[in-house]
Write a structure and sequence with these properties.
The chain is an alpha/beta fold. Helix content is 37%, strand content 23%. Helix 4 links the parallel strand 8 and strand 9. The chain is globular and about 50 Å long.
């Protein structure tokens, strides 16, 4: 452990970053594949889904901590972000580099093309050692933090049931888990019964192995997830420009996105996860959960990197979010 800052000694949320990244964002005008493209500008941001969630929570004024792993060889940018945003650093430091992802943002079309690296490859022994270190950190952190966020992909060699193991440990200790991942790790994690799960519609379709091309099919599948787990309380399905669904056993709501000037779509789903957690901490109704989480995502669209505007601006956006009940 290398705790480089004392901030957020009693964080309210802990995010687990098993596969963080540095995101290199390059802006171009009218991207042409197979041709020479001249970049307009470039910036490098600390990223990875779990780090993005913690960053957005910090911008909203919520004490957050990050645990997981980062590479020693390019740790400085992570440390700078944690220091600047007063995010408690409980990460394990490993030899080598943290992965570097590239994002190509076409300023004409508004589309983003992601080139994501897989991350460091773990041997079985190294994966077991890292998991034990993380569980020890979480045993201490969950005594003060009611919410743990498990977010993002797994690096090569990490067991697909690692999130399931963490969910069981954390929730047995009285904490609550939000799960945001995909593929086999989502399937295994769901079996452990997190409190909240937030797939996007493509991840949900992959999970159940069938196309989900209609709103009705998405709602029905979300209800299947709720019926299959007594611990699961909320399913949030992000749908990009079509908004998001928020489902409990008693209610089904659709939130429509706010109209904002889009700077980058990268991290909007992570911002929604942060908004879900912020809403839980405030004890909001499902309709207001939907508004705040959707506002977090909309606010993130206006920024490059894992950042939100001021909390007052996010709350103003939340009041503009339309929410409709679904029978």
């Amino acid at each position: 452990m290398n705790p480089l800052n004392p901030f957020a000694e009693s964080p309210r949320v802990v995010t687990v970053a098993l596969n963080p990244a540095l995101d290199q964002t390059i802006e171009v005008a009218d991207l042409r594949l197979g041709a020479v493209n001249r970049a307009l500008r470039m910036q490098v941001d600390v990223g990875g889904k779990a780090v993005n969630v913690a960053s957005c929570l910090s911008d909203f004024g919520i004490n957050a901590a990050v645990t997981g792993q980062i590479g020693r060889d390019n740790a400085a940018l992570f440390e700078e972000l944690f220091q600047r945003k007063k995010i408690a650093n409980h990460c394990c430091y490993l030899d080598g580099l943290t992965r570097i992802n590239s994002k190509l943002v076409d300023m004409v079309s508004g589309e983003t093309t992601d080139l994501n690296m897989p991350g460091p490859e773990f041997t079985p022994a190294a994966a077991t050692e890292l998991l034990e270190q993380l569980l020890q950190r979480l045993d201490a952190l969950v005594q003060h933090a009611p919410w743990i966020v498990l977010s993002g992909s797994l690096p090569p060699g990490m067991p697909v049931d690692v999130y399931a193991t963490i969910i069981q440990r954390v929730q047995a200790a009285g904490g609550s888990v939000v799960l945001d991942t995909s593929g086999a790790s989502l399937q295994a994690g769901l079996a452990a019964g997190p409190r909240i799960v937030k797939p996007n519609r493509h991840e949900l379709a992959e999970l159940v192995g069938r196309p989900l091309d209609t709103l009705e099919s998405l709602v029905a599948t979300g209800r299947e997830l709720l019926a299959g787990s007594s611990a699961l309380e909320l399913v949030a399905v992000s749908m990009g420009g079509d908004g998001a669904l928020f489902l409990t056993r008693k209610q089904a709501l659709r939130a429509l996105p706010a109209r904002v000037r889009v700077s980058s779509t990268v991290g909007a789903g992570d911002a929604m996860v942060a908004g879900l957690v912020a809403a839980q901490l405030e004890g909001l109704s499902l309709a207001d959960v939907a508004r705040l989480a959707t506002a977090f995502a909309a606010a993130k669209l206006t920024r490059l990197g894992p950042h939100l505007p001021r909390p007052a601006e996010v709350r103003t956006l939340a009041r503009q979010i339309g929410v409709a009940s679904i029978d």
